[in-house]
């Protein structure tokens, strides 16, 4: 998949309570969750973010709780892709399972600035900073995970023959 | 072909003789767990995917604990969705308010998770059951929906870091202090994607409740699971609880570890994690003049009977500081009842504490003790992220029950030895 969008930058250890505070977990409505996304880090994030925008963050993005509400909230704001130098494990699998594109990239992404325009090719694992001309490479998904994504998420994947790998 | 305890349990559940780190497997689960926050999302996914019947009604646990007893209308709807699904599917392990407890305290206590099990839960602290020698890990709601349909879950076999705790713990040093120390040393992503295997003679001094506390916080270092080999104390604990057969696994000598880390626990003193990450760990002395507004003793980390006993010993014949709220939340109905029987509830109430019915409540900033702007709490919970217990400008300090209780008396962070000479 190819994505093009502008960047929002966050730091290390962005936890799921920042992505969607627990006080809003009394709903499962994606739009309502989106309206509080990143609220404790940037209260205006959900108002400012544009369809297709990209989040760039440091290490251990999504640490903390297992709430799938976190990737759902991000996806529902219109964010097309999250790039981080590393992801917390449960957030990583939840994103794959619900179809939020995420890329792990340790290739100097701290030099990407807020507002930069990125062009991402998830199949090739390339990230081009259109604003600065720099190119970064990200770790591509293992085949097994590509299989889940190509099937349109884990539950579709489960309907196929694949369950006995 | 040598394997760690984690590899062995994963191999067994995926029908293989050997699995190696990095390998992707599809494994059978012995139990799949969800709560009132993650369950409704999983149920929606299950229905959307055309699910009609769960794979095994005895291997699913649905527990309303986070916002239950219902904190507001929206939470009531979530709990209702969970209840209706449990009824419709005849789920055996559904626990209603009045019979429930915080999931990670309830399942071991009731003998629903056992050594050698493979357990997944749509809750990150599912790693708690590793203390009994099970492989257990947190997943998301979609994983859970998939498991409810198929009885399976995909995993990447993790590498293992082995932590060896040598020596005998000092007075007032509990399992909570050992795990806080560990997280302080390796950081909140120090064990990212990895299995944390806890071992060493120091563990033999810990109660099973304390061991559950340690495994509970493996996720706070990014760990996939925390695990311990069962010993006599484990077997004693499960003896009268297990209602089915189980299997004991231990790591092979010379199994492959990505790292081996040794700690001499005699160098470890009671700890506090400062805001806003569980890795900001210091000795209690270094935080001792920080004033607090609220103390919470409870949660899946430290809401078990042993925790309550220790806190009560510290509080006994003292009063809670006039401007401090001490909120005590037994993790299960059983703990609640045992506290009454042992006179612990009375100790807390006479000291000026509030004692609540089991719930996650304030641990995740749900209700039952939300912090205002600028307020500070010391809590026996596991996370002190920004806004975790209320206003984004409030603060949470993490500690053991003994330190939390001593702090409630003084109104500031306090070493338990300062208020009592009773060693634990
Ligand atoms: S007590 Fe806290 S950490 Fe434990 S399950 Fe409840 S909300 Fe999560």
The count of helical stretches of chain A stands at 7
The average pLDDT score of chain A comes to: 90
Poorly predicted spans of chain B: none
Q: Helicity of chain B, in percent?
A: 25-40%
Largest interface: A-B, 43 and 52 residues
Can you describe this structure?
The complex is a heterodimer of chains A (165) and B (424). Chain A has 165 residues and is an alpha/beta fold. Chain A is built from seven helices and seven strands. Chain A has a seven-stranded mixed β-sheet with strand order 4-3-2-1-5-6-7, covered by helices on one side. The longest helix of chain A is centred in the middle third of the chain and has 10 residues. Chain A is globular. Chain A starts with a strand and ends in a 6-residue tail after the last helix. The C terminus of chain A is likely disordered. By secondary structure, chain B is an alpha/beta fold. Chain B folds into two domains: 259 residues, Aconitase, domain 3 (2-Layer Sandwich); 149 residues, Aconitase, domain 3. Chain B is built from 13 helices and 18 strands. The longest helix of chain B has 17 residues. In chain B, 62% of the residues are buried. Bound molecules: iron/sulfur cluster.
What keyword list fits this structure?
heterodimer; A: 165 residues; alpha/beta; 7-stranded mixed β-sheet; 27% helix; disordered C terminus; B: 424 residues; Aconitase, domain 3; 2 domains; 5-stranded parallel β-sheet; 29% helix; binds iron/sulfur cluster
Topology:
The complex is a heterodimer of chains A (165) and B (424).
Chain A: E1 2-9, H1 16-19, H2 30-34, H3 45-48, E2 54-57, H4 69-76, E3 81-84, H5 89-98, E4 101-104, E5 117-121, E6 126-129, E7 135-137, H6 143-150, H7 154-159
Parallel strand pairs in A: 1-2, 2-3, 3-4
Antiparallel strand pairs in A: 1-5, 5-6, 6-7
Chain B: H1 5-13, E1 24-28, E2 31-35, H2 38-48, E3 60-63, H3 73-89, E4 93-94, H4 103-109, E5 118-121, E6 135-138, H5 141-150, E7 152-156, E8 160-166, H6 175-186, E9 195-199, H7 208-216, E10 225-227, H8 232-239, E11 259-264, E12 271-273, E13 281-283, E14 294-297, H9 299-302, H10 305-315, E15 325-328, H11 333-341, H12 344-351, E16 354-355, E17 376-379, E18 395-398, H13 401-410
Parallel strand pairs in B: 2-3, 2-5, 3-4, 5-6, 8-9, 8-11, 9-10, 14-15, 14-17, 15-16, 17-18
Antiparallel strand pairs in B: 1-7, 12-13
Helix pairs in contact in B: 2-5, 6-7, 10-12, 10-13
The structure holds iron/sulfur cluster.
Iron/sulfur cluster (SF4) binds at residues 66, 102-104, 123, 125, 299-300, 360, 363-364, 381-382 of chain B.
């Amino acid at each position: 998949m190819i994505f093009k969008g502008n960047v929002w930058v966050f730091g290390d250890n962005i936890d799921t309570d920042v992505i969607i505070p627990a006080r809003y977990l009394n709903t499962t409505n994606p739009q309502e969750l989106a309206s509080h996304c990143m609220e404790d880090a940037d209260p205006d994030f959900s108002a400012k973010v544009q369809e297709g925008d990209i989040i760039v963050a440091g290490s251990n993005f999504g640490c903390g709780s297992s709430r799938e509400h976190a990737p759902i909230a991000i996806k529902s704001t219109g964010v097309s892709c999250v790039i981080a130098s590393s992801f917390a494990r449960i957030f990583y699998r939840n994103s794959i399972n619900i179809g939020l594109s995420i890329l792990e990239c340790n290739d100097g992404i701290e030099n990407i600035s807020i507002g930069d325009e990125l062009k991402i090719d998830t199949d090739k694992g390339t990230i081009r900073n259109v604003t600065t001309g720099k190119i970064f490479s990200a770790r591509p998904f293992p085949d097994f995970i590509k299989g889940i994504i190509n099937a349109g998420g884990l539950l579709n994947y489960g309907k196929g023959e694949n369950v006995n790998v | 072909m040598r394997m760690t305890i984690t590899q062995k349990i994963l191999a067994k559940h995926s029908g293989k003789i050997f699995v190696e780190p990095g390998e992707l497997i599809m494994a059978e689960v012995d139990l799949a767990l969800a709560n009132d926050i993650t369950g409704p999302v999983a149920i929606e996914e299950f229905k959307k995917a055309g699910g009609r019947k769960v794979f095994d009604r005895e291997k699913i646990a649905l527990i309303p604990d986070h916002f239950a007893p219902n904190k507001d209308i929206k939470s009531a709807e979530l709990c209702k969705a969970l209840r209706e699904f449990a009824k419709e599917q005849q789920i055996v392990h559904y626990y209603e308010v009045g019979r429930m407890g915080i999931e990670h305290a309830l399942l071991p206590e009731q003998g629903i998770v056992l050594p050698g099990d493979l357990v997944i839960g749509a809750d990150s602290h599912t790693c708690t059951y590793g203390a009994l020698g099970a492989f257990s890990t947190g997943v998301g709601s979609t994983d859970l929906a998939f498991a409810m349909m198929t009885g399976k879950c995909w995993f990447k076999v993790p590498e293992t870091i082995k932590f060896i705790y040598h020596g005998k713990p000092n007075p007032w040093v509990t399992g909570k202090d050992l795990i806080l120390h560990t997280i302080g040393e390796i950081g909140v992503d120090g064990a990212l994607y990895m299995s944390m295997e806890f071992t060493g003679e120091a563990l033999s001094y810990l109660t099973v409740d304390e061991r559950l506390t340690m495994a509970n916080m493996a996720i706070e270092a990014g760990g996939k699971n925390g695990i311990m080999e069962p010993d006599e104390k484990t077997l004693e604990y499960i003896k009268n609880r297990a209602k089915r057969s189980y299997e004991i696994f231990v790591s092979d000598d010379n199994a492959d570890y990505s790292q081996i880390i040794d700690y001499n626990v005699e160098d470890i003193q009671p700890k506090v994690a400062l805001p806003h990450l569980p890795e900001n760990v210091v000795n209690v002395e270094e935080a001792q003049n920080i004033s607090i507004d609220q103390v919470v003793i409870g949660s899946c980390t430290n809401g078990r009977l042993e925790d309550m006993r220790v806190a009560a010993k510290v509080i006994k014949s003292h009063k809670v500081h006039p401007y401090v709220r001490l909120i005590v939340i037994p993790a299960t109905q059983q703990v609640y009842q045992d506290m009454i029987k042992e006179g612990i509830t009375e100790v807390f109430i006479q000291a000026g504490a509030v004692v609540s019915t089991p719930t996650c409540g304030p641990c995740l900033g749900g209700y039952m003790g939300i912090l205002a702007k600028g307020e500070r709490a010391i809590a026996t919970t596991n996370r002190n992220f920004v806004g975790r217990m209320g206003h984004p400008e409030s603060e949470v300090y993490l500690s053991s029950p003994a330190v939390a209780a001593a702090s409630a008396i003084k109104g500031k962070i306090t070493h338990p030895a300062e208020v009592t000479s009773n060693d634990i």
